[in-house]
Amino acid sequence: MPVIEVSNLNKRYGERVAVDDVSFTVEEGEIFGILGPNGAGKTTTVECIAGLRTPDSGGIRVLGLDPRTDGAKLRRLVGVQLQESQLPEKLSVAEALDLYASFYPDPADWRQLIADLGLTAQLKTRFGKLSGGQKQRLSIALALIGRPRVAILDELTTGLDPQARRDTWQLVEAIRDKGVTVVLVTHFMEEAERLCDRLALIDAGRVVALDTPAGLTAKVADEQRIWFRP
Ligand code: ATP
C-alpha cells in the first residue's frame, strides 16, 4: 500500500491556481521528489499533505489517514521541515530541541540526532547565530525528533554551498536508510537525480511528468531542463 496517495488535488489562493489536479503516490521507503520552478505549487502540495493547508478539493491519504480529519494523529507520524524556519532568533539549539521533544510522547534521543547531524558543538548557540547549513541541519533534527514514518523536506539545500549541499544529501540518504519515507521538494534536477527514486515534475500547479529521474531526464526537453539547473 502506498504511504501517500494524492488524487486530483486542487488549491487556489483567491484567483491564483496554486495546485491544479495533482495526483501521485509515494511508496514506503522511497525518496520521492517534487521538482519544479519557483511558484510551481510544490510547497502548497506538501503543506496539504502535512495537514498545514486545506485543499479546495481532492483526496489525500497519508499512512491511511486523511490530514483534514486525522491531523493530530498524523502530526506524530509525519515530520515536516519547511522552507523558512520560524524559530525565534534567541532560542538556543538545545532549547529548540527540548521544546520540540516536549510535543511528542516518545521523542527520539536528540543528543544522538544532533551528533549524527554534526551539531553537538552548537548546542548553546542561538538560532540567529547559526550558519545557513547549521540551520538546515537543525531543521532536519526538529523534523525527525518525533520518530516520524514520513519526512517532508522542503528545499533543504537552497542557499547552501556545494560542500554543505553534499553533506545534506548524505543526511537525506541516512534518513531513508533508517526506514523513513522521504518527500523531497527541490528546484534542482541534479539533486533529484542524485537522491530520488521517483519524482513528480510540477509546473504551474500541474504534474508534467511522473517518473524515475532517468526516465524523466529522457522525457523532458533540454530547454525545459535548463530551468532546473542551479
Ligand atoms: P517556490 O519554489 O518558490 O517555493 P513553490 O513551487 O513551492 O514555489 P508555492 O509556494 O506552492 O510554489 O506557490 C504556488 C503559487 O501560489 C505561487 O504562484 C505563489 O505565489 C502562490 N501562493 C503561495 N502561497 C500563497 C499564499 N499564502 N497566498 C497567496 N498566494 C500564494
UniProtKB/TrEMBL annotation:
Boundaries of the shown chain within the full protein: 1 to 230 of 308
Compartments, as annotated in UniProt: Cell membrane
Protein topology in the membrane: Peripheral membrane protein
Annotated ranges, domain ABC transporter: 4-229
Superkingdom: Bacteria
Organism: Luedemannella helvata
Keyword annotations of the record: Antibiotic resistance, ATP-binding, Nucleotide-binding, Transport
Name assigned to this protein: ABC transporter ATP-binding protein
GO MF annotation list: ATP binding
